[in-house]
Write a structure and sequence with these properties.
Layout (H helix, E strand, L loop, with lengths): L2 H21 L6 E6 L7 H13 L9 E6 L7 H10 L4 E5 L2 H10 L5 E5 L19 E5 L6 H11 L5 E6 L6 H14 L3 E6 L3 H13 L4 E4 L3 H5 L1 H10 L4 E3 L2 H5 L4 E5 L1 H16 L15 E6 H6 L6 H6 L2 E3 L1
Parallel strand pairs: 1-2, 1-3, 3-4, 4-5, 6-7, 6-8, 8-9, 9-10, 11-12
Antiparallel strand pairs: 10-11
Helix pairs in contact: 2-11, 3-4, 5-6
Amino acid sequence: MRRREFIRLLAGAGVAWPIASQAQQPAGPVIGYLSGRSPEDTVDELAAFQKGLSEGGFVSGGNVTIEYRWARGDYSRLAVLAAELVQRRVTVVAATGGENSARAAMQATATIPVVFALGADPVELGLVQSLNRPGGNATGTTILLGDMDQKRFGILQRTIPGIVRFGALVNPNYPPSADQIRDLEKAVTDLGRQVFVAKASNDAELDAAFAALLHEQVGALLVASDPYFDTRRSRIIAFVAQNRLPAIYQFRAYAVEGGLISYGPSITDAYRQVGLYVARVLKGERPADLPILRPTKFDFVVNLKTAKSLGLTIPPTLVAQADEVIE
């Protein structure tokens, strides 16, 4: 199936399937898939999730049905979408696309198992009791993206040694944002540089953040982890390209779609792990007994084509360290 057709299928699934389900109840278990993102920006991640399910013995449309709910970057919709899945009496909820999805799912039910994918410490967020024995009805994977910011700033500094003032884009409505800002400021201070933090949680604020970054004349940009930003990936990449602003991102998809550099845990591997855990829950294992998974694979991607358009020369040592080089 072509990528465009796959996107169209997913986009329609979130609307058409709930209506169809009222008329005909599937015979097998039903997975509720709740995401703060959108189907258009989650194609690779969803394929990885389904791969994990398949490795665990379950195939969508075969011996299991998936009900999709997409917030499309609007976190205020998640509580209603989670309630719909609970009302639908799904067997398990896969809560992806950030902390807000996991929190909405767990607030909606204390009995239906929840398997989440998020970027912060679920213990600090109060979602589980411990990483090794979560307790309750939830488990999943965390990619702890904030821990990577100092390395990302270091990569930018090596790419543009003369940079004095960094910019950072953060969503204040993303639960880990306070920790993100603290970590960003500490990382830049340790490098002996300055940082201007621009905040955005909706499209109007994103436009204002772009204007503020230009006004502050930042020399390079770090886009903090946030599912809303993922749904606006094309807009962010277009902004930095138009203004010839070097930027670094957390996920490979940004660099593949024209971003300069990405460095962080493999999000597709995290979604595959969610699929595997959902399969284990469907087979009878309890989330309380499944330890929280942490990243084992990392992606460092350099886009030399973008570097050339910006008039930059990526240091050969950085290029040699990259897992993937786009030319």
